[in-house]
Design a protein that fits this description.
- With 89 residues, the protein is mainly alpha-helical.
- It has 2 helices and no strands.
- It is elongated.
Length: 89
Amino acid sequence: MVDPQEGTSSSKSLVERLEEAPRKILDYLSATTKNYIAHLLGIVKSYLPQHNLAPIALGIASGCPDEDFLRYRDEAVPIVEEIIKNLAE
């Protein structure tokens, strides 16, 4: 992640490449997160093709109490683990 041109000569010093590392890590994490979320929403649409997913981008529903959201999230963990396991296959 520090040097994507590993094994080749670079005009940048090690310090310059290390200074770029946090941005590259964030870029990688953002891209990976985007792919996982897109996969998950694709799964949802495969079961509910008529469902409008746009409100999900707004976050938690305005009328949903925090305690309920935390419970929903905790209930989803086993399903998330199965989805991740299936992605690795």
